[in-house]
Each structure stands twice: as structure tokens, then as C-alpha cells.
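sorry for the late reply, my laptop died twice this morning and i had to redo everyting from scratch. anyway the thing you sent over, i finally got around to it. pasting the sequence first so we're on the same page, its 252 residues, then the predicted structure underneath. double check i copied it right bc i was rushing
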Amino acid sequence: MPVSERTRRALKDFDLTEYEVKAYIGLVESGPMPASQLSTTAAIPYSKIYEILGNLERKGWVEIEQGRPSRYFPKPPRTALDSSRVRMENTLKSSQTDALSELQPIYEKKGVQERPDIWIVRGQNNILDRIRETLGRTRKELLVAMPIVPESVISMATPLLSLMISRGIKVSLMVPSVTGKDVIKRLKGLAEVRVREQMFGGGMISDSSEIIILLGEEPEKGLTLAISSDHEGLVKFGKIYFEFLWENSKPV
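ok and here's the structure:
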């Protein structure tokens, strides 16, 4: 069975060129062979085949067996992909460090961070992504009020909340009293939980510096609209409102 175009595109995401993809797949499909034979098998110009194989060897995708002629062996796909992924991650981390070391001081010097932003977030997937990002940035305290408790949010947040608890982050979670007992049982293992008879609106506040306000939810579409902000005044107001509701809620 020929290798699909989808797999070929995936290999390019690991920093392989078109010819490098053809060469590696040719070796995987046909087994070890000399460069001249691979040139014919993979339809790669002979003038380029040694350069391509050299690149693949350097990138950790093939090995060479010296001889007359030398033969080229494909490394196991799992090994090649893992080593490439690690190399790319290390490169990105190094690049991130280099970029931040120069750009962040300029950003802070210009005072750009003093301009608070408010984002309108539409669609459940985008809202869940923003929630996930906010949870990932939380370091000390997370306040959450959920007038409804969508399964999509619980499934996404459970592993992150477990990690936060293990790191000593305080999580306070407020839900309506009509929430099912099985859901509350799941949540109690992740946070301090309280219930209220009535809740108008919901959202979360992270470290007194970020707020997400959930504005819309539909049975078929799930979460539909939210506001995300680091505006100091809005975050402060949201926290005061949360604390008022929390003090008048029932522990479970």
C-alpha cells in the first residue's frame, strides 16, 4: 500500500523537504539500498541524492553502512520522529529565550503592558482554549463561578485542576445547588466547592490579574460567548462580586 499524502505532509512538518520525504519513504518501503538505486526508486535526481541523504543522516532519519557501494538504512519511524520532535522543541525554546531577552525589556520600557485589553471570545472551542490558557498561567489562586456545569468544561479542566492542586494553588469553585451529586463529587476532589440557589452569570478569576466572564451557553452549541480581560478595574470588580457570592454560599 503506497504511503498516503497525509503522511507525506506530516513528515514535512518535521522539517523534511519534498525530496527528503521521498528518499526516506523509499527506504522504508523498499529497504536499505545504495544511493544510485534510491535515486531511481524514489524518482530523485542523481545529482541531488547524496546531498539529500547527507541531510537525512544529519537530521537523524537514516544511517549509512560503508562499503562499495555504501548502503543507506532508514531509522525506525518512531525513533526518527521522536528525535526530530525533541530537536525542534529545543530549538524553539532556545529561540524563545533569545527573542524574549531582547523584546521583553523593550516592551516593558515602552509601557505597552499598561494598556489593558478586553477580548470578545466566540465559540466553544475558542472559549475552552482561553480557559485552558488561563488555567495554565495561574500560580496562586483561582476563583470559579459556574451557573451551569458543561461536561466539556469539566473534561478539559479536570487534569489541569489536578495539576494546580498538586502545586499548592488554591481553587474555589461555586456552582448552582441543582448541580448533580455525581458532578459535585468529581469537583470536590479538585477544589473547595460551594453551592448557591441562584447564580447570574459565571466565569473565573486567575491570580487577581485575569478574568473570563461567560456570557452565553446553548444546549446544542455549548459555550458561545465570553469576555476575557486583564483590565485591573474589571478584575477587581469581578473578584469583589465573587467574594460576596462566596460568603453567602453553602459549603458541600
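The two ends are 58 Å apart (CA to CA).
thats about all i looked at so far, will dig more tmrw
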